[in-house]
Design goal:
Two copies of one chain form a homodimer.
Chain A (H helix, E strand, L loop, with lengths): L1 H4 L4 H10 L7 H12 L5 H13 L3 H26 L3 E2 L2 E2 L1 H4 L2 H21 L3 H23 L7 H25 L5 H28 L2 H4 L5 H4 L5 H9 L4 H9 L4 H13 L2 H20 L6 H15 L3
Antiparallel strand pairs in A: 1-2
Chain lengths: 318, 318
């Protein structure tokens, strides 16, 4: 895909920057970071940062540093998520906590946070560092909210807040931050914020759709994982609109001690209700608004690549 | 004590800055931060930063912000330590994880890290932020090393590395950082680094001594906690020098499945060997070197207060 081609020289530099963060520290930290880097991941966020950086002509070296900081921040949050959820697999690979004690895993996450913060400081931009720290607060506050209150039936507003915290906030950061490393033009920043926000929201909606449409082997996790854990996502919200009383679904998300048969029944009802398509259409609307913002930049190879990436975000379920 | 008197106007400001970090976030985060702030702690690190700030005439508002950042960083590491160790009490108060799930406790620690990083960024000093992130890496790397390798018999060098990471690194930061918020004079920075290093090392040595000399009720934790968990500290190292074969002690720290009787036997042997006094003498030597560095600043009320604080660090066992 074109958007990966355009960054093929930079992504290995970003990965090298990530890898060297363990240098001079405990050998098990090196192993852990190596393991996490080899565990896959499309490096979508660094790709976005580098493309935006090229588009706005940001300081190249610092953009690599920033991209590594963003990806490490993302990695650290995943490491802590997996230990909190007790997940043993991510993208089909064993998680860190599948091999290590919870204590070692928590500390590895902390170390990666520390290195992400150090890289953010090395961009030499104070506003970027503030935004970086603010984004981490947003992500963690979202997770805490999810832990304490967002199980069971929620409003669309709560859902959008949750996916903003979970995914779109970091996409936003990946898009705005390179502008800080160029000219700090406020109009460009606002456009890039919008592009990052809209594409990030779409990304999470599609992830939530995939949880309903994928079979266990494809995602490396059981289908309808969200539903099973009481998490209501956009397809379920559309289904509830169409069928507000649907007692089975309310039972699944509120009680959460239900039979496999009941879960499959609800998943099938959602699949057959048109809710999946409605959620995908909404994701496309988000991407459309993101593309509108993007089109306000002069045409360039990078702009086209970012547009391709935005469309990929909704098309990847195919 | 004089050193607390001199900062009595600033410490409430530091605490207010810490408290407001939960504003606008999940109410349980507010409760958690309130709980942590009410759980005591002498605010030694903020006191040090404010006294140094006054001595070198640093930007006052930013020094308050820095002091809050340092104390939050310290707090976040304690929150994660307690969840990793499964500790239910700290300073006689219930820990966060005594009341909450491990997941909620891990995320609260992450949130506090994020807010500490945000406050560090609000000092507007890039070198300070770099040092801040570096210090967090050092602390976490030390904990990981302790988790993986430092149990059982270790060298003095390993011990000093461990207590540097655990305690002295953050004391160093508390002392150097205000100089960044004044004139960034490298000579002053080096002197302050030395003062913070030496006093921080002494602080941890005395903590390690107190673990041997205190009874269960005073510290709010069982006596000889370190020894029981296989952690060799300076009094044990002195005892080993005096009595290199001491089979009981080697058994306690290496095997760690030993009777209460055996632990008490070893603790008594260490207490009676003069090792406690040797460790305290060494702590006093550290403080002496710290005071030598401090004396190179012109006399002032704040300098005298810092000297008093340094002496308090070794005298507090009385």
């Amino acid at each position: 895909m074109k958007f990966f081609d355009l960054v093929q020289d930079q992504i290995p530099q970003v990965e090298a920057r990530m890898r060297e963060q363990a240098n001079g520290h405990h050998p098990d930290l090196e192993m852990a970071i190596e393991h996490l880097l080899n565990a896959g991941g499309k490096r979508l966020r660094p790709t976005v940062s580098i493309l935006v950086g090229k588009m706005v002509d940001s300081h190249q070296e610092r953009t690599i540093t920033l991209a590594a900081a963003v990806e490490l921040l993302h990695t650290a949050t995943l490491v802590h998520d997996d230990v909190i959820d007790g997940s043993l697999l991510r993208r089909g690979n064993p998680t860190l906590n599948a091999r290590w004690s919870p204590g070692a895993t928590i500390l590895t996450g902390d170390f990666i946070f520390a290195r992400a913060a150090k890289l953010a400081a090395e961009t030499e931009s104070v506003p970027l560092m503030k935004l970086f720290a603010q984004t981490l607060s947003t992500i963690v506050n979202g997770e805490i909210t999810q832990l304490f209150v967002s199980k069971g039936l929620i409003s669309r507003e709560d859902y959008f807040q949750r996916i903003y915290a979970k995914t779109a906030s970091l996409f936003e950061l990946s898009c705005i931050a390179p502008v800080y490393l160029a000219d700090e033009d406020h109009h460009k920043m606002e456009l890039m914020r919008k592009f990052g926000y809209e594409v990030g929201m779409a990304f999470q909606i599609v992830d939530d759709v995939l949880d309903f449409t994928s079979e266990q082997t494809a995602l490396g996790k059981p289908v309808a994982n969200d539903l099973r854990s009481g998490l209501v996502t956009l397809p379920a919200l559309y289904y509830l609109e169409k069928c507000p009383d649907c007692p089975n679904m309310i039972k699944v998300v509120e009680d959460r001690i239900v039979s496999e048969e009941m879960v499959l029944k609800v998943v099938n009802a959602i699949r057959e209700s048109g809710a999946i398509q409605s959620a995908l259409d909404e994701a496309k609307e988000f991407v459309g608004r993101g593309l509108d913002a993007l089109q306000q930049f002069p045409q360039s190879e990078e702009r086209d690549a970012l547009a391709e990436l935005a469309r990929f975000v909704v098309d990847r379920q195919i």
